[in-house]
Specification:
Beta-Lactamase; alpha+beta; 3 domains; six-stranded antiparallel beta sheet
Length: 692
Amino acid sequence: MFLTRDDRKISIIGGLLLLGLTLTAGVAVYNAMQHQIESVLGRGLGVALQGKALLIESQVEKSVADTHALALRPFLIQSMQELNAEPEDKHAMHNLMRNVNSLPDVGFYAAIVYDLQGKVLAQVGNFSNSKGQSLPLYKYSQTSLIWDQQFILRTSTDVLDSNKQRIGSITTETTLPQLTRRLSEIRSIGETGEFILCAPPAHDARDMACLISQIDGIKFRYMERMVNGGISPISYAFDGKSGVIAAQDYRQVPVIEAYAPLKAIGLGMILKLDEEELFKSVKEELKKIILYIAGLIAAEILLLNWFVRKLIKSEQEAYIAKDRAEQFSIELSLKEIELRERLKEITCLYEIRRNIGLELSMDTMCQIIFKYLIPAVQYPEMATAVIELDGWCFTSGKSDPSLAHQVLSKTRITDRSHAQQWRVERDPGCTCRAEISVNGKVCGQLRIFYPANKPFILLEEQRLISAIANDLESWLERKRLEQALISVAEDQAHTIGQELHDNVGQQIAAIGYQARALEKKIYSTGDKNMALVAASIASQAQISVIQIKQLAQGLLPFELEANGLVFALKTLTERVASTYDIICHLQCDKDIVINDNNLALNLYRITQEAINNAIRHGKAQRITITLTLQNITLSLSICDDGRGFSGSIDAPASAGMGLRIMQYRAKQLGAKLEFLARHGGGTEILLEKQLI
């Protein structure tokens, strides 16, 4: 195929453009690689530097802490006190020497002990003579880091007695082999890698003492803080800063330096590598890359047209694939939304069924249903739930994520007759509705409302409402069965009490009267022994009559029906006090009238059971019953001075039948019942109920 003149022009122009673009791209890539290598190396140097910093600080702090701990040892203080008092005390000197000679076994390279006048008392090991090659640690008094073919930490500290008075001093040297090994491993960084550890210069001094770890070993030298008229990176480390910088070092060679402070010991450190070594491999490869670029330019010219056609075709295929991907994405989003809705509904049913097994009041159960039902519907921000049950209407508030529970309002239904109470037409705003039946009789309904202009009628939500209504029906059937059992027990006790009072008691009283008449008749005949037997029968019959009356009064509280709760509680306390010979009284600020017979009877039974437990199990001698009414809060408190409960009574396994019945009565009333231990001994049973 021959090229025309215009084709050659296009090829030449295209080739020049490609050449320019390729060279530009190469230069840009080289610069980017250079910055990237500098950045990566800088981060690597910084990480390595931080690791060395942690090692140095931990090693130095441990050695200093060991020396200070040595100065606090009792044997050392005691021996020095004895030698200060009696310098010629051989026993004290022997003890001091023996203990000082044991210091190398616990990690000290050398140690020396001085008295108050600076006289040497004891010494072990050989101290380093390389004082000139040391870095002073200004953070610690009389402490320096020495290089003598290895790192040695020299620390001096005063020895104080128990009164914090100086009795001498001790100087130790500790080798740091781990630090020596780590700082000597500079070869892993590179041939020109250096690690520099410096102490800040003294006041008004220009030079600073430094230890330089190079590939040929560790050297000591003094370096200037100012380099080329500028501040050396080590100065930033002295100021508490850390980072990576490109600069010229003391050799006037461009390097990459990472600097960091050693705040704990007051030193600064630098880890660096020459830029020439850094980019050496890149420059060597760059020569080869130039040859490849020339070949690429020729290939690019031949493949230019083919790439353009291929690009157009690929773009068309990409558009088609994009459309398909968007369709799949929309379908997946819809499936995800649907799965989330089903998960919310399952979670709602699980939480409601988990709470149905608990002993809860009607108000609490409705609160729980609203708490989990509203977030489970598809539009919780505009939904309202209503439960109508047993003549009451419970309504949820609007969904608010900031509220821990849904707001609950409770009103009595008075705008419908009983026959029409549940046979109402569907409200236009009611999207879902389910009737609540107990034993085949409709007693309520559960409804979900949205605004009238948005009737989102959803089959799944209707199923959820129906399932919750079925669970509520089961809960109500069990609750009413329990109430029926308590009612039957109460009626049976009422019948037994009535029978004891009206029949058995009267018969035994008649037997007593006949025995008393027999006593008088026998006594008139002169048979005194038989008269005494008749008198005993009459006395026992009279006692039985009194006990039967007390038992009947416990089973059948006549005073409660005739005179109300307060009078019944007063009568109960008087009877308990006289029967058991203890102190039992009622405290009531004012005459409280309770018209609800069921509430009054349950309060009386709870009080009766609490008194019985206090006497039988607690052996109480003083019982105080307090009944108060503040605003709409009715409080009943039964306090005793008995032995209290032996263990927790919150767990069903540890509570007796009487306590469980008390708890059940309180829950049926929608009241809060607590069993509290008193500070002075005994127990307080506290019941609180909100009256509507």
